[in-house]
User: Fold these one by one.
Assistant:
Number 1:
Amino acid sequence: MAKDSGSKITPRAQDYAAWYQDVIREADLAEPAEVVKGCMVIKPHGYAIWEKIQAALDKRFKDTGHKNAYFPLLIPESFLKKEAEHVEGFSPELAVVTIAGGKELEERYVIRPTSETIIGHFFAKWISSWRDLPLLINQWANVMRWEMRTRMFLRTTEFLWQEGHTAHASHDEARAEVLRMLDIYGEFAEEYMAMPVIKGGKSRAEKFAGALQSFSIEAMMQNGYALQAGTSHDLGQNFGKAFDVKFQNQANEQEYVWQTSWGVSTRLIGGLIMTHSDDNGLVLPPRLAPIQAVIVPIWKTDAEKAQVIEKAHQIAAGLRGKAIAVEVDDREGMKPGAKYFHWERRGVCVRLELGPQDLAKGATMVKRRDGGDKQSIPLDALGDELPRLLDQMQRDLHAKAVKYREDNTVVADSFDQVRQILDGATAEKGGGKFVMVHVKDDPACDARLKEIKASTRCFPLVDRHGGGGRCIFSGDEVAQRVVVAKAY
Amino acid sequence: MAKDSGSKITPRAQDYAAWYQDVIREADLAEPAEVVKGCMVIKPHGYAIWEKIQAALDKRFKDTGHKNAYFPLLIPESFLKKEAEHVEGFSPELAVVTIAGGKELEERYVIRPTSETIIGHFFAKWISSWRDLPLLINQWANVMRWEMRTRMFLRTTEFLWQEGHTAHASHDEARAEVLRMLDIYGEFAEEYMAMPVIKGGKSRAEKFAGALQSFSIEAMMQNGYALQAGTSHDLGQNFGKAFDVKFQNQANEQEYVWQTSWGVSTRLIGGLIMTHSDDNGLVLPPRLAPIQAVIVPIWKTDAEKAQVIEKAHQIAAGLRGKAIAVEVDDREGMKPGAKYFHWERRGVCVRLELGPQDLAKGATMVKRRDGGDKQSIPLDALGDELPRLLDQMQRDLHAKAVKYREDNTVVADSFDQVRQILDGATAEKGGGKFVMVHVKDDPACDARLKEIKASTRCFPLVDRHGGGGRCIFSGDEVAQRVVVAKAY
C-alpha cells in the first residue's frame, strides 16, 4: 500500500485550487508529469476510478449498438485543413511530428487532438449505400491538445477519453443520436457520479470547431465554477463534405452523410473530486469507488490479533460475495487512527472497525466517509445492511450536490447584475454561481461575457427559469435563459 | 452488419502472405491506414478480439497483484539516452515531436516506443524504502516504432499493447516476477489462444535493448515461421542506475532497485489468425471469439419466416443465458448460403441452421467452423451441448496446432543441415521449421544465422531435445539446443 505523504490538505475556504491539488496528491490519484509539459501520471488509485467509469459507459455504448474500433494516433497535417473551422479551432494546440525513423518527414503528422478528420477519411471508404448506415463507432484513446494553462484531470495536454463517431442517412437520425448520447452522459453523471448536470445546447461561440451545433452537460463544482463534463456534437454534413463521405440513398441519389461525435474524458475524475470531496480528502460515490469498504482490525494482544484478523478476512470474503469491493487493512506497526486517516483521504466509502469488544458483541462499528455518526451493525446483518448503506450514500451525495447547485443558482436581468454576482468569484476563492440570464445566441454577446471572465454554458433543454425575455446585451427577444458562469 | 467485399481469399499454398492479408480483409478485422505510414485501423471485429484478450490478461495481472496506471505518451528525448543500450536499440525507430502549440520545442519529445525510461523517472520519486517494494504496475497503451517493413497486426508503426513494469528489492524476486509473467503469457497463449508456445530465454543478441536477460514465448505459424508472441525482461539494475531508482534496504543501505518489464501486443491477433485460420477465412478459438455462434433462420413463406425468426431469437436468448455470444442473422434478401459464407469468413465458431423442418423436429443443424460434418442437436439439449461443443473445439484447435508444430520441428547438428532445412522457406511459400540446434549464446553465432535469414528464437526452459552438445559454429560445449527459425 502506498505511503501517506504526511502533508496537509489546504482547506477549501482558504484556497480551493490548492485544496484540489492537495486532495489529488493525498488520495494518490495522480501527479504532474513535470518533465512532459502539462501532462500527468495517472496513478493506480486514479486509474481504477477511470476503469470504473469506462466499464459503465462502455456497456451503455454497446447496449445502444455502438462498436469499438481503433484509428491511428497520427493524422496527416493536411487532413485538419480540410474543414476550415476545425483547423482554426485546433491548430494553435497541435503537437507535430516532423521526424520519424531518423528522417525529416515529407508530410508532417499531428498527434490527434480529436479524430473527426482521420475517421472521416475511413468512413468515406466504408460507406457507399444507405444500407451501410447508421455506422456507430466509438474509440477509447489518448489525445493531445497543447494547452497553456493546465490543471490535473481538468485540463492536461494529453488526456484519455472516448470519442464516439457516427454517420447517418438523415439529419433527423443524426440529431436523435446526438441527444441520445447526451442523455446517456447525463444519466451516467447523475446516477454513477452523483453529479447533477444541466443538459443543454452550447452557444454558437462555444460550439465544437466544425460542428453545426454542440450540446453539453454542465456541472457545478464546489467553488461555483461550471465544468463542461461531456459534449455531443451535431456535425451536420460538414465533415461529410470535407472528406467526401457519400452514400446512395433509397432514391438512388448520392448524398453526404450526417455525422455526430461525442466524448467524455478523464476530466470527469476532476469533476468527481470537485463535486464531493471535503477538507479531509477524497469522497467518492459508491458506484465509482474502487474500494467501497475497508475493514480495520483492532488488537492489543497477539491472541486478539489472530482472532480479529481472521474474522476481518472472513467478513471481507462474505462482502465480496455481495459484490462489494472491500479491503482489510491488517498492516502491522500502524495505529488504527492512522489507518482511518489513510483511507479517509483516499475516499473509501465506509470504514468498518473490528476490535475484540465488537467481536464479542458480534458487531462492527461502521463509519460513512461523508459524515454522520458511527453505527454498530451486527455482523450477520452486514451482507444486507452494507449494500443498503452504500445505496443511501450514493443518493445522499447526489441530493447534497443538487442542493448545492440550487443554492448557488440565481437569476439576473442585466449585465450589471451578472457582473455584481460573479465579481470576485475566482477558482481559488470560490463564490461562483450559475446565473440564469437572457442572452442571445450571438458571438457578440458571448464576447461581452468574456469581459468579466464568464461564458454562456448552455441553453438548458428543459427550461426551469420561466421562458423568454429580452437579451441583456442586444435587447432582442430570446426564448429562454442561458446558464452563465465562470468555468474550468 | 458490414458488407462482404466479394473478393477471394488467396489459398495458403499459393501465397501465405497474401492469404494473411486477404483473411484480415474478408473477416473485416483491420485495414492498412495508408495515409499514416505503417499504421492500421483496427475495425470493430478485430477490436472485439483485442477486448477479449485484454479482459483475460487484465484479470490475471490484477489477480497477481499488479495495478494499472497511465504514464505520458511523450518522453523527453534525453531520457532515452540515459541507458546506453536502450537508446542504441530504439533510436532508429523513433517518431519525434519537434513543434507544439505553434512553437519549436526546446527539448524534443519522442512518442514512447516503450516506457521503461519515463516510468523509471517516476519510480525514482515513488520508491525510497524496501517497504515501497515490490511496486507492480501495468499500463495499457499505444506505442510507436517507425519500422520500415510492416504487416498488419504483426508489425505496425503504432500498436496497442500492455507493458508491465515492476521494481523489487532483490534480483531473486525480480527474476521470479519475470518468470511468473512469462508463465501467465504461456498459459494465456495455450488456454485462450489455443496457440502452443515454447517458453525460453532469448540469446544475448536477441534480448531487449537495456535488459540483463529477456525471455519470450515463441509460437509456430502455419508457414513454419516463428512468432515472438510475448516477452518478459529481467532489467537487472540497468534502469535503476540510469534513473537513480534507489531504496533503503532492511540493513539501512541505499541500493538500486531490480526491475522487470513484460508485454504483449495486438501482434497476438496476427498470431491467432496465422495459427488457426484456413482458406475459407478466419478461424477463432471459442474463448476469444467475439461471436461464438450464429443462428441462421431459413424460410420460404412469410408464415415460416415469422415462426423461425421468433424461435431463433428465443434460442439466442437462452444461449446468452449460458454465456454464449450469439447472433441471429435474420437479414432479408440474402440467401442462407451467402450468410454461411459471411460468418465463415469472420470466424464464428458454430453455425446453427434453423428451418421449418428443423423446427418440426425440435432440432437444429449445427456446423463447427473448423470442420467436421453437420450434426443435428435437439433444441432442448442446446444449452448443454453447445458449451460442450465449444470446449471441444477449443481443445481440438490446440491439439491441431501442437501437432503442426511437432510435425515441423526437426533436429540438426551442423550449419549445413540448418541451411538445407530452412533453404527456400519464405513467408510467402512457407516451408519454415523449428530447427533444434546447439548454438552458443554468442552474438557472433547469432550473426552467422542471419546469413540464412534465420535467428535463435529461444533456449527452451524445458529442454525436450536431449541436453548438451557442441555449438555448430564455435564447437564449444553448450548446455542445450536452441530453437532456430525464420521469424516475423
Number 2:
Amino acid sequence: MAPDTGILERIATGSGKQAVHVQTKTKQAWGDSSWTDGRLLAERYREIRRFTSTLIEPLEAEDCVAQSMPDASPTKWHLGHTTWFFESFVLERFVDGYRPFHADFSFLFNSYYNSIGERVERPKRGLMTRPTLGEVLRYRAYVDEAVGALLAKPSGSVPDRIRALVEIGLHHEQQHQELLLTDVKHLFSLNPIKPAYRPEAPSPPAPLPEGEGSRTATDPGPAGWIAFDEGLRWVGHEGNEFAYDNESPRHRVFLDAFKIADRLITNREYLEFIDDRGYERPQLWLDEGWATVRAKGWQGPSYWYRTDDGWRIFTLSGLRDLEPHEPVCHVSFYEAHAFAWWTGARLPTEAEWETACGRPSPDGNFAERRRHHPVACGPAEPGAFRQALGDLWEWTQSAYRPYPGYRAAPGALGEYNGKFMCNQFVLRGGSCCTPSSHIRATYRNFFHAAARWQFTGIRLAREA
Amino acid sequence: MAPDTGILERIATGSGKQAVHVQTKTKQAWGDSSWTDGRLLAERYREIRRFTSTLIEPLEAEDCVAQSMPDASPTKWHLGHTTWFFESFVLERFVDGYRPFHADFSFLFNSYYNSIGERVERPKRGLMTRPTLGEVLRYRAYVDEAVGALLAKPSGSVPDRIRALVEIGLHHEQQHQELLLTDVKHLFSLNPIKPAYRPEAPSPPAPLPEGEGSRTATDPGPAGWIAFDEGLRWVGHEGNEFAYDNESPRHRVFLDAFKIADRLITNREYLEFIDDRGYERPQLWLDEGWATVRAKGWQGPSYWYRTDDGWRIFTLSGLRDLEPHEPVCHVSFYEAHAFAWWTGARLPTEAEWETACGRPSPDGNFAERRRHHPVACGPAEPGAFRQALGDLWEWTQSAYRPYPGYRAAPGALGEYNGKFMCNQFVLRGGSCCTPSSHIRATYRNFFHAAARWQFTGIRLAREA
Amino acid sequence: MAPDTGILERIATGSGKQAVHVQTKTKQAWGDSSWTDGRLLAERYREIRRFTSTLIEPLEAEDCVAQSMPDASPTKWHLGHTTWFFESFVLERFVDGYRPFHADFSFLFNSYYNSIGERVERPKRGLMTRPTLGEVLRYRAYVDEAVGALLAKPSGSVPDRIRALVEIGLHHEQQHQELLLTDVKHLFSLNPIKPAYRPEAPSPPAPLPEGEGSRTATDPGPAGWIAFDEGLRWVGHEGNEFAYDNESPRHRVFLDAFKIADRLITNREYLEFIDDRGYERPQLWLDEGWATVRAKGWQGPSYWYRTDDGWRIFTLSGLRDLEPHEPVCHVSFYEAHAFAWWTGARLPTEAEWETACGRPSPDGNFAERRRHHPVACGPAEPGAFRQALGDLWEWTQSAYRPYPGYRAAPGALGEYNGKFMCNQFVLRGGSCCTPSSHIRATYRNFFHAAARWQFTGIRLAREA
Amino acid sequence: MAPDTGILERIATGSGKQAVHVQTKTKQAWGDSSWTDGRLLAERYREIRRFTSTLIEPLEAEDCVAQSMPDASPTKWHLGHTTWFFESFVLERFVDGYRPFHADFSFLFNSYYNSIGERVERPKRGLMTRPTLGEVLRYRAYVDEAVGALLAKPSGSVPDRIRALVEIGLHHEQQHQELLLTDVKHLFSLNPIKPAYRPEAPSPPAPLPEGEGSRTATDPGPAGWIAFDEGLRWVGHEGNEFAYDNESPRHRVFLDAFKIADRLITNREYLEFIDDRGYERPQLWLDEGWATVRAKGWQGPSYWYRTDDGWRIFTLSGLRDLEPHEPVCHVSFYEAHAFAWWTGARLPTEAEWETACGRPSPDGNFAERRRHHPVACGPAEPGAFRQALGDLWEWTQSAYRPYPGYRAAPGALGEYNGKFMCNQFVLRGGSCCTPSSHIRATYRNFFHAAARWQFTGIRLAREA
C-alpha cells in the first residue's frame, strides 16, 4: 500500500464513521475471537505497539531522521504518525479532558488533508529534525498510557466505536511497521558504506520449520501449474473479521479456465531473463516500462549490484551474494510483466490469485520472524499453492480499481476512500516484512508500476 | 487511442502476420459486404484517402508543420505517416520492383521502432520543416497511384493478405484523420489570435435529421436511467467485420445489476459542478487528479475561457459562447470521475457501456458531417441509449487492460501488441471527429487520465 | 547578442528617448557620412531591408515557422519583429493618421514587456502558424512603403529623432539577419535529413581577395603573439558614428603587459585538444563547464559528428568533412576556456582585445559574402591582428557588465538597458553571418557561457 | 564562498604544492606574528577547533544529519570534512605510520574529485545517517590528538610546509564554521515549528562596545557618501599574512571618481522598496533576476514572513519582529541590484569597495560574538566607512573573475583553482557568522546571483 495511503487516508475523521468493513454484531468480530473485552484489546494494543519498538532497536537517532525519497518517510515520522492516529481518532474523541501531548504534533504528523497547504510537504519530512527521536518516543509513551487507561475497563465495556477505531489504528500501525522496514532499507542502500539494519538474522537462524525453505536453499525444482476450471467465483471479503473497505463488496467474477504457478519465480530464473538480454529488448516491455528502464538505467532488480564476481544484493543484513534459489525480489510491475511475457505466460489477475489462494496457511515468512528477506521455497506438494502469504507481495495484472458496488462513505470520509484507485496495480499475499496478523487472502495492496522498494516478486499464470 | 498508437504500432511488420482480428473466411468479411473485390476496395481506398485531403483544405502550409505538444503530431506528419504505412506494408512487400518515393521517408515517417534511436524523436516532429507539404502531397499521390494499380485487378483477385493490410491501413488512416483534427485544434488554441480551422460549419448548417439535436438547442431535459439486470454478458468483438485485436477475445463478464444514463452530461450540468466549487474541493477528486488540477491550474474543461460575460469556448470554428445544452467536452478522466462522484453516481465500466450500447444506430454526429463539435441531444425516447456513437468519446471507469486470453502475436508483432495497456483508461463510442465507418460498439479507445485534447465527454452510471 | 536582446529591448518606447549612444550634433553623425539626408537614409533602409529578403530566398514557407529551441526564433518572427519595430517606433509616432497593418501584430511581434503575460511566450513562437509567411511579407511591404514615404523629403528635412530611430531600427534588423541565419542552421541541424540552407556558396566561390584565406586552405602556420606594454588604455566607443549604449562611456582601463594571438584557433589545433582527452578531464574545465559537458554529453563543438571516416560538420551548405585549417567554430565559452587552459594560455579580456584590434580593416568574411562559414586564415604579417572582424565572434574572458558610469536612461528605457548584464560573457569581432556595416572594434556581443549556436571561436592571450 | 569551494577545493593534493598565497620567507609569515612556533600553532589549532565544538552545542544529533538543499551540507558533514582535511593533507603526509581513523571516511568526507563518481553525490549528503554524530566526534578527537602531537615540537621545528597546511586547514575550518551556521538556519527555517538554534543571544546581551550599534537600535540617520577621486589603485593581497590565491596578484586598477555609502542599507529603507512595489516591477530588475522573482514567488528577503501584524523574520534565535534599523539581510544579488537601481545609485565594484575599506578596524559583529545576526549601525563619523567588516557580506557588482596574471598552480592543483570563476558575484567584508580572524579587506567571497541563505546585505555606490 502506498506509504501514506494507510488507513489514515481511508478512514473518516470528524464524523466517527469509517469506511472500513467492520461488522460488530457479535463478540467474535475481532480478528482473533479470544480477545473480546477491553483487557484483551489492551493487550493486543500493547503487543503491536511493542513490536514497533523492537523494530527500531537496531537504529540510531540519526537513522530515524532521514527521508531517502518522496515515497518514503523517516522512521521518526512513522513513529509519530501512527501515534497521532490514536491521539486524534481515539483519545481526543473519547477521553474527556484529554490534553494532547504537544500542540504542534497534530500538524506535524498528519498525513490527512482537509485544507490544502497545512501539512508538512511530503518530500520535506526528512527536514524535521525536531521533535527529536526522544520526544517522539515520549509522545508514544504518553499516548500508550492514555489508551491503556481508556481500555482498562471491565470486560465488554469498551464501546464498539472505540474498539473499531483502536483496531483500525493497530492495522494502521502494522502497515507502517512494514513501511518503516522498507524505508530504512532504501535509506541504507544509498549510504556508500551500506550499513546493515540487523547484521544477521536472529541466531540461531534456523532450523526452519519443516517445509518452509532455508537460507542456503536447494533448488526448489521446476514450478508446477495448478489448474482451475472456468466459472463464476466469489471475490472479496466476507465475514466478521477485519478488512479494509477496498476488499468489499464481495462479488462474483467470471473467470475463464486458467493455470497458476505453485511458487514464486527465483533469482536463478530471473537471471536467465537478464542473460537473455531482457533489459535490452524493448519488445518485451510495456511502452512505459521500457521508457522507465531507459530513464533509470535499470539492468536488474533493485538492490542488485553487478560485480566482477557475480551479482551481489543489499539486504537488511547488509551486502551479500545473490542466492539463486531465493525468490526474485524488488522488481517493479514493469519487470514482472516483461519477465512473464518473456516466458510466454502472464501475471495472474487478482481474482485468479484469490481463487487459487483459497484459505491459506497462517504460517509463513512474516515480519515477526525477523529475517526481513524472502526464503527459498520448500518442496512441492501436488496442488499446493506455495508461498501464498509472506515472503513477497505478488504483482497481479489487475489495475487497482473499485470493486462493483464499492462506494466510499459520505462526509469527510468521502475525501479519502478510493482516491488512490488510479494508475496503480494490485499486489497480493504480504511479505517477509508484513506482520502475520495483518495479512489475509483478500488483502489488496497497491503500488505504481515503477515501484521497487517494497518486497515485491513474481508468480506466473496462463490460460488453461 | 494515443496518437501514435494507431494500427501501425499494433500490427506486425516483416512477418506478414497481423495482430488485428481479421477473419477472412468469407467474401463478406469487409466492413461493408458490398465491396468484395479489388475494385470496391480500391474505391474505398480512394474515398478514405480523399477524405484526408478534404480535411486539410482549410490549412495553410505553415499550419501543417507545427507540433503543439509531444502528444500531438504535425499535420504533415500525419499525412506522411499514413502514406508510409501503405508503402511499407503493402507496396514494398507485394509489388515487385516497387521503388520507394524517397529513401529518407521510411525513417522520417516511421513511428515503429525495432531499433532504438533511429526514429525522429517524437517531440521533435515539428522541427522537420523538410520535406515540405508539397513534397508530402506528392508522396501521397505517388503511393495512391501504386496502390490503385495493385488493386486494379479483376474481381476477387486481390489476395486476402493484401486486402487485410490495405484495410488495416485505411483504419489507420481514419484514426489519424481524427488525430489531425484534434491536433490542429490544440495548435490553433495556443495561437493568441485563435484562428478558426473552418470559420463556420458548412452552410446551410441545416435542418438536422430528426432526433439528432441542433446547434442552438433546446434543453434536452433530465437524463433518464436505463436499467439492466445482473447476469453474465458477452463482451468483445465477434463476426467477420474488421476489429482491432484489443477487442478480442470475446468473453463473458458477470455484471451486477446497473443503471446507465441515456445521454451525455451537458455544459449546463457541468457548470453546476464548477459553480459548486468542484475544482476547489480535493475530496471530490482522485489523488492524482487533484495533483493535476493544482499543477495545471485547471478551472474548467480544456478550451474554456472565463470572461466577464461568461464562459467562452474555442472550437474548430473559432471562439464562441458556451452553449449550455451541448454535451460537455474536452474533460479528462479525472474531471469525469470527479463530476460523477459529485453527483453521487459513477462512470460506467466498459462492459456496462457495451452492454447498454447494444447494436447502435450507424447515424450520428461524425467527422463527415464536418461540424467537428458535439451537438445537443435530441428528445428522449424510453429506453433509448442516446448519443451512443459519435459526438464524444465517453470515459469509462475501466483501466485499459487486455481481455482474458488476449495474447499478442509472436515475432515482430510481439513488440507492439498490448504495450500500451498500462495506466490508461478506456473510452467508448467515437466522436464528432471520428469517421463514421471507423467506429463500432466494441471499439476500445484509450488515453491517459489527464488527456483533454480529444473530444471526450461524460456519461453516468450507478448501481441498480 | 542574445536573440531577443536586440536593440528593441535596449531602446525605449513611449518616451522617444533612446539608450543608444547616438550623437547627432552634426550632419555627419551617421555611420557613413555620405548619406546625410532623407534620400540617403531611405536608400540605406531599402538596402538593408532588401538584404533580409535575399536571406530568406532559399527558405520554404515551412522553414519559416519552426522554432528549434527557446533561444532561437522562427524566421517569420524575425521578419515580423523587425518590421514591427519600424511600425511602432517610427510610423506610429511620426506619421499622422498612420493605420497599423494589423491590430494583432503589435502583440505578436513584440518582444518588449511592460506588462507581464501579454507577449507570446518566447518558447511558443513556433506555434504561431498564423499569420502566414505571405501575410508577414505583405506586412513588410506595407511598412517599407510607409517608411519610404516618410523619408522621401528634401535633403536635411528628416528630423534627428526620426533619423536616429530609423538607424537604430536598421541595426536592429541587422542583428536579426545574423540570428535568422544561426537559427535556421540550428533548425536544419536537427532535421534527420540535414537540409542545406544554400547548397553551395555562390559560384564562383572565389578567387578570394588577397590575403583573406581560402576554402580549401593551406596550413596557416603557427600563430604569432602580438605584445603590448602595460599602461592605461581607453576603451569604448567615441565619435559620432552609431554605437550601442553598452559600448559607452569611453573610459580608461589599466592593462598589465600582455600578448595576444594574431589569429584564431584552427580545427586542427582544437582536434589536438580533443585527442588529448580534453572532453574527459574535469581538471581542464570550469566547474559549471564540466557539469555542462557531462549533462549534454559534449564530445566536440556543436555541429561536429564523429564518423568512421573522421569528423564531419554541418554547415549552412550541408554536411561536409571537417577542414583542418578553418577556425574552430560553434564552441561555448566553457570550451574556449578549457581549450585555453589546456594550452597554458588564456582568453583575452575585452579591453585587451579592443586594444589589440585597434582600427581594423573593414574587409572580412561577413554575411554579404554569403559563405556563412569561417574561412582559413591568410598568411601572417608581423604584428598584424588577423581575422579581427568577421569570420567568428571571439569569446573574451570578460563577464558582460556595465562600463564605469554606464547608466540606462530613465523612463520606459529603464526597463531594458543593462538588464542582460548578468551571467553572460562578452564576444568581440563579428562573424561570417554579421553584416559588415554592423560591426566595429568596440562592439560588445554577449551570450551565456553554454551557448554554441552562434558562430563563435577562440583567440588566445597570455601574460607578457 | 560557495559551500564546497572552501580551500579544500582550491588547494592541491598529492603534490604538496598549494595555490594559496603563502609566503614563508620569514618567521613572521603567519597571520599573527606572535605564534611562530609549533606550540603557538598548536594553540591556535585547538582554539579554532574548539570554537567549532561550541557552535554545535545547541544542536541535537538529529539536527546534524539533515541537508535542507543541495547548496547546504549537514552539520555532521561539516564536522567530518574539515577533519578529513587535516587527516589527508597533514597527518597522512607527514606522520610516519599514521593510521587513518576509518577507511571509509576519506571517501565520505571528500569534496575533492579526481575521478568522477567516487564522491557521495552532493545532494545526498543528508542520507548518510552513518557514521553517527558520535563517531564523527570521535574522529575529530582522534585527529586532534594526532595533530597536537605533530605540532608539539620545540619552537621553530615545525617545517614551513606543515605549518602552511595546518594554517590553511584552519582557514578551511573557519569557512565551514560560517557555513554550518547558515546551513542550520536554513534547515530550521523549513521546520514548521521553527526551532531556535540558540534561544537568545548570550546573556547579558550587553552594553555593546562604543559605536557598534545595538539590538534595539535607534535610527542610524541617513547614510553619508564618502568620495574618492579618480586614479590608479592597487588592489589585492600583499604582505606575509595569509590570503587565498584568488586575492592575488596584487595589481593596479584605474578607477573613475566615485562615492560610496558609509553604511549598509537598513530594513526600513528596504521596506520602502517593497512598499513601492519593488517586487512587482520588472523594469527594476535584471532579466534573470526578474525571472527568479517570478519563479520563486519572492516578495521580500529570505526569512521574512508577512503577517497581519507586519513583517516577522526568522533568525538563529527564532522568529521575531522585523527591526527597522538593522541592516537588511539575506538578499540575493538580484535584489541588491534592483534595490540599488530603484534608488538611482548602484552597487560598488570590488575595487571600489576595497579602496574605500582601506585598513579596517578588526572590531565588528563577528561569529565570536554569538549574536549571529547583524546589528544596527552606530553613529556616523565623517568619512568613516562603517560596518566594513562583520555584520553582513556585501554584494558588489563585480563578477567573480581572476585577477590579471592569476594562474592556478600546475599539477593536481590545476583541477581546482579558479574553477568557480564563472557566473558568480563577489561579496566583501564578512558577516556576523564569520570568525573575526578569518576576514580581511582583500577577502573575496563569491556566490551565485540568486543565493540568499548567507548573511548578505547591500551597500550603495555612485558616480562622483
